[in-house]
Amino acid sequence: MANATYDRKEQFQQIQSGLLHGEQIIAVYDAVGTGTGFIGLTDRRVIIQDRSFVGKRYAITSIPYSKITSVSVVSNKSWGGSFFSTGAIAIHVGTHTYEVEFRGAQKSHHVHNVILHHLTSSPG
What we know:
Blueprint: E1 5-6, H1 9-17, E2 25-30, E3 36-42, E4 45-53, E5 57-64, E6 70-74, E7 88-93, E8 96-101, H2 105-121
Parallel strand pairs: 1-2
Antiparallel strand pairs: 2-3, 3-4, 4-5, 6-7, 7-8
């Protein structure tokens, strides 16, 4: 876990407090915009803090990599330049899509690549 990347220590500690035995944190990134507080990546799952619940409530949602159907780079413009010219991704789980926007394209690139690695290397 010494190699884990994170933006805010309190978010990292929140993810750390809910780890399963032997689970390792890869990264925890702060999200911008409404709805999502942060995203955590472990070697087993994606963890999203969802702030979109009524009454100022929020949920910590764990999504095993095996349940993710696809991951997308989200942009409000055409792909004129770099594939990761934006700082937003969308994670598709069944009929639900979690959209997460970051400060900087490097974070969206890292999250996208970690998820894609798990989607393309897991058996079955």
